[in-house]
Please model this.
Amino acid sequence: MTMPVLHFCGDFVVRRNWKLEMRVLQEHELVYFPIGTGTVYEVRDRSYTIDGPAWVITRAGTPHQYKFSESSATRHQFLHFSADGALFPHLLLESGADLIPAKESGFHAAMISHLLEITYLEKNSRRSDSLLASLLNELDHLAALAQSASRLGNLPQGSKSDTSFSLIVSKAIKYIKSHLAEPITAQEIARHCQISHEHLSRLFVREVGIPIRQMIIQLRMERAAHTLRHSTLSINEIAAQCGYSENHYFSRTFAANFGLSASAYRGKYANPDGQHFVHDVTIEERYPINTYFQLNPLSPSS
Model:
C-alpha cells in the first residue's frame, strides 16, 4: 500500500462523564482533542490524561478505551484509516508514541479540519486520501520529535485555519446558528451584520451559492435530523427547537428535504449508541458535527 486510505471520519462532541468501553479496531484511529478536558485514554497498561490539545493514535488491533471528562462535554475530531506502518514508523509502529501534545489551533489542527471539510463537501476519496497522507507525514515528524528530544514545546505556533467565507457572511451564518429556534428573517440578519439586505443577499449567493433564506432552512433541517438521530425528544419539541411553531409546516419541510417523514427518518436512522452526543452552537465548521463521513467502508472479511 503506497497511499493511506481513509475509511471514515467525524467531528463529535460527547456529553460529560461518558465512557467508551474497551474495544479493538481493525483499522488505525487518529483522534485530535482541541482542548484538554481531563479525558483519560487507556491503552494496554498505560493511561494518559488529556489536559491540553493533543493527538492520540491507536494502532489497528490494539485494545483501548476512553473515559471522557467528568466536568464538561468533550469535542474530538477523528479519522479511521488503513496505512502501511513502514511509511510512518514513528506514528504507526508499536514502538511509536500513543499521545502527541499539540499546539492549540495550530497548523495540524487546521489540516484535520480541512480534511473533514473536503471529505464532507466533495466526497472525493482520492483527494481525502492525499490530504490524509500529508497529515500523517506531519504527525509522524512530530512523533519523532516527541520521542527523540521532547521538543514539541519549541515548535512554532501554526496559524488558525481561516474560513473561506468573508467576515460578513461568517458573521451572518454564526447568527443564524445561534437563533435557529427563533423566527429570524433575512432583514434581521442583515441588521445584525450592519449592511443592507440586498448587499447581504448578493454576498450569500456569491460565496455560499444559495440564498440566505435557503441557508436558514438547511441549517434548521440539519439540526432537526441530528436531534432525531440522537435524542428521544418528540417531533413537536424538535420542530420548536428548530424554529417551527406549526408542526405540519415542519413536517412538510423535512419531508421535502429528506424524502421521508420525520418519524420515518428517526425509525431508519436513530442511533441508540449516539445518545451521548450534544449540540454545541459555538462550534463553526462547514461540515456537520456528530456525523460520520464514510468513504471506503471496510468489507466484512477485511
DSSP finds ten helices and ten strands in the chain. Residues 125-148 form the longest helix (24 residues). The two ends are 14 Å apart (CA to CA). The first strand starts at residue 5 and ends at 14.
